[in-house]
Design a protein that fits this description.
Jelly Rolls; mainly beta; eight-stranded antiparallel sheet
Length: about 220
Amino acid sequence: MPVTIQHRRASQLFGPDCVFGIVDWKGFLGNLDGNYATVTGTLEEVATPFGTGIQVAAANSYVQFDWTSLAPLLNNERSVFAKFYLPNVGALYGLAGWGANPNNNASFVYNDSGQYGAGLANDADAGGSLSAGWFTIGWSNAGINGGANMVYGQGIPEANGTNAVAAITTYTAFRIFNFAHANFPCPVGTIAQEVLVFNRVLSAAEILQLHNKGIGAA
């Protein structure tokens, strides 16, 4: 079934607290306007064990969503859950994020030299290690303009920190395969299968349930 304004389907799939969600990318590249999205570089739809993913096919490629046309979050609790395939680790990769500069007022999840985390690029709460291949990463922020971050890898809580993550109320750009900044592109061969954003903190049990729902069969 082609993707048509996936964030509207998200609330049907994951409840009203899910304000943005893509779990299958079939037809996405043919309907960018319908998804409030633009692509820089070259992405391609690819078959995965979980359906249709979207893959980086050329260096410095990413997809950007007009966040204000989707569902701008308030300055409050929020969570991100994502499922990616990384062909290799060993550099700073921006998996998903908001904001114009990741070193100042940005919130995102990322993979850094085999470790993953969430927070500001220069002051992130790091999680455990990642190997190349399929993985899920989750992040919840329980505070207002920062506060307690919880980072999850493969459904397991890995880090509990307090590094500030600013509100994303005013940010118009949400990118996958890069932050809203040009310095941290994902390598060619990176695949996004699932990206979900919630307007509340997900519990550890909910993160584990999302992980088991998607990765367990791979």
